[in-house]
Design a protein that fits this description.
Helix content is about 70%, strand content about 5%. The protein has about 230 residues and is mostly helical. It has 2 domains: about 1-75, Winged helix-like DNA-binding domain superfamily/Winged helix DNA-binding domain (Arc Repressor Mutant, subunit A); about 80-225, Up-down Bundle (Four Helix Bundle (Hemerythrin (Met), subunit A)). The protein has a 3-stranded antiparallel sheet. A hairpin with a 3-residue loop joins strand 2 (about 65-70) and strand 3 (about 75).
Length: about 230
């Protein structure tokens, strides 16, 4: 079982958090493949801990859409369809573009400075192939775009899709759909477009960022399913 080779003994104070990180990292690295069953008893035995923290960790990973629970069968690594991926990417693209439409293409100078810094960190994490950290930074970057409009329900809708982003990054990474470093660098293009203050250019930059990956992902997943 490849996953167990990467396990480290968790500190008791952060047991559930560390178990989540261990399993999530193993999934993002492809040590668990789409459709693989994750057996709580095997993990608990290897770590020398009870199944309680494992069960709690699996619930969180289910909320992140990285695993899917099937009654009477157990938890399995989520398999996203081409349609799932296309819908999530295109919806996020339109929500962020709509936020920029409402804000006139502006997010504020303070946010731009933060976003530029986040883009740099994202490139660093991509170069280190640290997908887990990259996802967190990516969410922080795009949240600033959605907050720009001040539209609470828009932001809530956008946030509701975040649980799927872990699974999407996992799919993108393991399907080798995009070069992670190139994808990270595209965030500098978004910052540059926002700095111009041109609403339509900013909206198009955000849309193209998502759609470039979505088109390729749709193609790859469709070919695999076919």
């Amino acid at each position: 079982m490849p996953l167990l080779e990467t396990f480290e003994q968790p500190n008791i104070k952060t047991l559930r958090i560390q178990v989540v990180e261990i399993i999530r990292r193993a999934i993002l690295r492809g040590e668990f493949k789409p459709g693989d069953r994750i057996v709580e008893a095997d993990i608990a035995k290897h770590l020398g801990i009870s199944r309680g923290p494992i069960r709690e960790a699996m619930r969180q990973l289910e909320q992140e859409s990285l695993v899917t629970y099937h009654p009477h069968k157990g938890c399995f690594v989520t398999t996203l369809s081409a349609q799932d991926a296309w819908e999530i990417y295109t919806l996020r693209a339109e929500l962020e573009a709509f936020s920029l439409q409402m804000s006139g293409g502006r997010v504020g100078e303070e946010s731009l400075i933060i976003m530029e810094s986040l883009a740099g960190k994202m490139v660093e994490r991509a170069e280190a192939n640290d997908v887990e950290s990259m996802v967190g930074i990516d969410l922080e970057f795009h949240s600033l775009i959605c907050r720009a409009s001040g539209h609470k329900r828009l932001y809530q809708t956008w946030s509701s899709l975040n649980s799927h982003i872990w699974a999407l990054f996992f799919t993108v990474t393991n399907a080798k759909v995009v070069n992670l470093v190139e994808a990270a660098r595209r965030h500098f293009d978004i910052v540059q477009a926002l700095r111009t203050g041109e609403k339509e250019r900013a909206c198009e930059s955000v849309r193209e960022h998502y759609l470039q990956t979505a088109r390729r992902l749709l193609q790859v997943l469709s070919e695999k399913s076919g």
